[in-house]
User: Fold this.
Amino acid sequence: MQKRKTVTRRQFIKGSIGAAAAFTIVPRHVLGGPGHTAASEMFGGALIGCGGRGNGTFGGLGPNVEKRAICDVKFVGRTDDKMIYTDFRRVLERKDIDVVAIATHPGWHALISIAAMEAGKDVLCEKPMTRFIAEGRAVVEAQNRYKRIFQLGTYGRFGQSKNKDSILTHKIMASGLLKSCKAAHIKPGGLKVRQWSGIVNATPQPIPPALDWDMYCGPAPLRPYHPHRFGGSHRGYWDYEGGGLADMGQHHFDPIQWKFAKDYTSPVEIEPYAPPAHPECCAMWGWVEMKYADGLTFVFESREWGEPYTRKQERGVSLDDLSEADRKKIEEMPDPEPLVKFPEAIRTRKRPGGHAEAAHRSATLLHLANIAIRTGRKLRYDPVAEEIIGDEYANRLVNQPMRAPWHL
Amino acid sequence: MANPSKKLAELVSRMPDPDDRGLYCTDIDKERIESAIAQIHKGGRKNILGIIDMLVEPGKGDDVKAHYALHVLGLHVCKLDDDGPRHQFAATLASELASDRPKAVQAYLIQELQAFGGKEVVETLGQLLDDEELCEPAAMALVAIGDGAAEQLRKALPRAKGKRLLAIVQNLGVVRDANSISGLKKALDNKDRDIRITAAWALANIGDVSSADLLLKMADKTDGWERIQATKACLVLAEKLAAAGDKSEAVNIYKHLRDTRTDPAEQYIRDAAKSALATAG
Assistant:
């Protein structure tokens, strides 16, 4: 007798699409009472990266996801190849996993997101989406190649997209009617610069036996182990993240990027005010000013070093910036479609609100800022080619080499 | 190692002190740092060597300030209009590789060359592809530099094994070296799964049409992670071929995947192939 293969949630839906809709979902009352979720409505989920953010990230997958695997490089000696893993590749081989939540350090975010989509899974990935710019483009390409759902694990844009003033700003900016934008958005402080700095005089320590340090480092150089490079304080090292700017920057600027309708482009000028950067450790900086081609300015201001940013004041856009004829056009424009949340996206296959391109562009903001800080130079950026113009050495930070076998 | 000059030692001492947690967060004086580095730069090669002499392996002494000073000196020379100082900086670092300096110190110098080196150092980096410990950083520095990297990686390929072979295969794919195709095809049969997968990706990224059948066979006959990755290589190759105008071969790849991925678990591959076929026409 032929062995019956396990059918996952997604296969079930796909197989049902051509059939009568009445047979797609088994009615709850048939299976038994309130609170019971029909098997056909459940997705198989895996959590990759089980540190401080892990459970919160997994919760973002939604209520209809059953946790079937957890994976972390600190589980050496505990793996059972059923629920507990240290190697994400084993998890992705499983046919009963439909969606993954990724909460590793950001040096792994892009690679595991891409690998998960290559294995047919949908992805919810913690912020920052990536560690450098080229990773983001690779995630977008994987999303498009495999037609998967990708959502970034920061949700401010969902609230922003329901705010009346933000919707008006979004419509004005998206319309193309505002030729010269005088708006400036400044993020003053709250970027945890000191908190997420790296130890510059770390003495190597023995690797804990339960930790696969080589796998933890992954695409980054294999450095001597030190506990400060592991756990939340990994944020202080360029190898894994980009300091407080990377940790908090995408939380703040992703919704702002939506508000100003910049989900498909990037700034063209980036200027830092910072002391010379350390080669391995994130440290102090003052501010970074970024300008888009239309004049819109974003500023990261640390308020933890140097003089404050004083070049521009916070300023929005309004209908007063337009002619009367153009104001009428804005008033007649429909509001943008509501953003789709991850649980709905994986059921309906609609693009989620924090999709890969948008997330890549908001991650690009903080990567450009960090490149400017690390080089100490004013930069010009081509948002179409996604390259820094006329600065070969800064451009090396746009697409960084990876340690084999990891590659984009 | 020679003792640094008093003047150099004093200039390096002006770099910041870590605070009591080891962080560079307190009393970070930008002007003081940059002024000291500008003066160090005036001392040319002698000062660069003097700083390198101060470097030690992690945990073997305090070289925090020298470590930082060398990097900031690299940032400084890259800001100048004239490429001469950067060239001298990189050449000086390269001259201290393949020496009796500790491997960890050499690895740091290679890391700096990844940031600041140019074609003038690729030959020296290429020699390090034979070194078990330094091959990985050297390969990464070569691809960051770009110009001249492919030749060095290709020369090292025939004699590489294990971890070194993996690093070289991957980075030949990164630089898309079409002259390495025959060597990469051999790697498809390596007993190490990571090497096989990486070679498949490298051939796909190069866009080698002659590899299409090999990659499809690999994707068909393997399972698990290797199958996932070999299939990805097929899709990437098809995209590269279509972009290069070789639509017929791309279409063959897509049709093969569409027609052979009958397991419901691989429906998404069928769908990806169908969607790509619709675009490829």
Summary: The first helix of chain B runs from residue 6 to 13. Chain B touches chain A through 68 residues (CB under 8 Å).
